[in-house]
Amino acid sequence: MITVICGTHRPQNITQKIVDQYCALLKEYEVPSELFQLAELPADFVVSDSFGKRSEATERILQEKLIPAEKLIIVSPEYNGSYPGVLKAFLDGVPPKLWKGKKVALVGVAAGRAGNLRGMDHLTHVLHYLRMEVFSYKIPISKVDGLLNENGVLDDQQTLALMKDQVKEFLKF
Fold first, then answer.
1. Domain count, the chain
2. Are 119 and 78 in contact (CB under 8 A)?
């Protein structure tokens, strides 16, 4: 199973549009998958779950979406030249043994021109520390606002082709 993680908890975020496309690609390839949005975390996750007081909501997320996943696709927007703090808090709040050995594909999303390349590099270092295997084919999606059609759906054929290629290769990884 592959879990697709939306790397932000910001309401009505554009990152979710890219996440939805990855979920659709996995469905197209008939790959069992789960969607995990960081917005699903309890509001007090940082002060409770991070320090051993596991909530029922977080335990459910771990049991249903993280533990059974052999692979993860993390779609992360750029926040101040890196990835969102809520994603770091989630990584830190989960026992390291649950991350060990998982394979991860990274996708960066940004309104600017670099597609969160720097954030994906930062995230790669943390994931390697947690002994996860990061797939080398990373997709930086730049100027994401301009890639969405009038309905807010990703409609850029070049970007979609890159995403499809990444998924096909990641399935072999």
1. 1
2. yes
